[in-house]
Design a protein that fits this description.
Blueprint: E1 28-30, E2 36-38, E3 46-52, E4 59-65, E5 72-75, E6 81-83, E7 93-95, E8 102-104, H1 113-124, H2 139-155, H3 160-179, H4 188-216, H5 226-239, H6 243-255, H7 261-280
Antiparallel strand pairs: 1-2, 3-4, 5-6, 7-8
Helix pairs in contact: 2-3, 3-4, 4-5, 5-6, 5-7, 6-7
The structure holds zinc ion.
Zinc ion binds near residues 58, 99 and 101.
């Protein structure tokens, strides 16, 4: 069917032939009483943030979640945050599509001249730019960006905590993707198993990375204080069935004079989970 804007191609504006003349109204859904309610969509929480690539100087535009607009509804035992409207985690890795340098947003601007040289020599030289989404990021796109961030950190010899943090966030993305699968799809069981296996690998790498980092780095580490990192190691060790490590870290938190009541409560919850695990053995 011909659209009413067909023919714009002759002006070089073929990409606008399908433009909608009027903005789409927000999706109206009904609440429990049958009243129409406005549903906020993922794109309503995003804006474009500009960064300067510290490797090649290009201006990078990244979709970013508006701080304070999304509502935290809970956290998993390994501190993965869950938000009501959008999985914020999909928007944390920034990638320069010109030179291939990528990093989590908190690390992106921090790249020394020596590190930039290593990125240029080992990544930029063979990097092939890919078409990037300009509106919403899918889980697969987010996972690709995190892979680029991980390889970027390896190449620039970033700290173990940075790599561990990227592995942790990749594991969380795989969990988010797994939770978003449609249980009625024929491949549901197979895909769930594959995503769980990949998540387990990333959790294990995150655990090993943070264990290395506490031996050699100071705090805050990836924005976390020492008690939070101890708790995270305990949680990851529980998830990876390293019960000795988990028990040791939990005991450390419960006897610490600097740990606050909130983290001690979380450590007690973790201890309960660990005890159940041990009973199963
Ligand atoms: Zn760049």
């Amino acid at each position: 069917m011909a659209g009413i804007l067909d023919g714009l191609g002759q002006f070089g504006l073929g990409n606008l032939e399908g433009a909608s003349i009027f903005e789409q109204p927000k999706t109206a859904e009904k609440d429990a009483e049958g009243n129409a309610v406005e549903v906020e969509k993922e794109e309503d929480f995003l804006f474009d943030k500009k960064y300067e690539c510290p490797v090649c100087g290009t201006q990078v535009t990244a979709r970013t979640v508006r701080a304070g607009k999304v509502k935290l509804v809970g956290t998993d035992i390994d501190l993965r945050p869950k938000y009501q409207q959008v999985d914020v985690l999909k928007y944390d890795a920034i990638c320069c599509n010109k030179c291939g340098y990528a990093a989590l947003s908190r690390y992106f601007p921090h790249c020394t001249d020596k590190q930039a040289k290593m990125v240029k020599e080992q990544i930029s030289i063979s990097y092939k730019p890919v078409q990037q989404s300009t509106d919403l990021y899918s889980y697969d796109e987010a996972l690709d960006r995190h892979k680029l961030a991980l390889v970027g950190s390896i190449v620039k010899k970033g700290q173990a905590s940075e790599r561990a943090y990227i592995c942790l966030k990749s594991a969380w993305l795989l969990r988010g993707k797994r939770e978003s699968l449609d249980p009625s799809s024929p491949d549901y069981a197979k895909e769930t198993k594959e995503l769980q296996d990949q998540e387990d690998q990333f959790l294990l790498n995150a655990l090993e990375g943070f264990k290395t980092a506490i031996q050699s780095e100071g705090f805050p580490m990836a924005g976390m204080d020492d008690t939070t990192v101890s708790y995270l190691i305990a949680a990851l060790a529980t998830e990876c069935h390293q019960t000795d490590v988990a028990s040791k870290m939990i005991a450390q938190i419960l006897t610490s004079s600097s740990a606050n009541a909130r983290i001690k409560d979380k450590a007690r919850d973790l201890k309960d989970i660990l005890m159940q695990e041990l009973k199963k053995k």
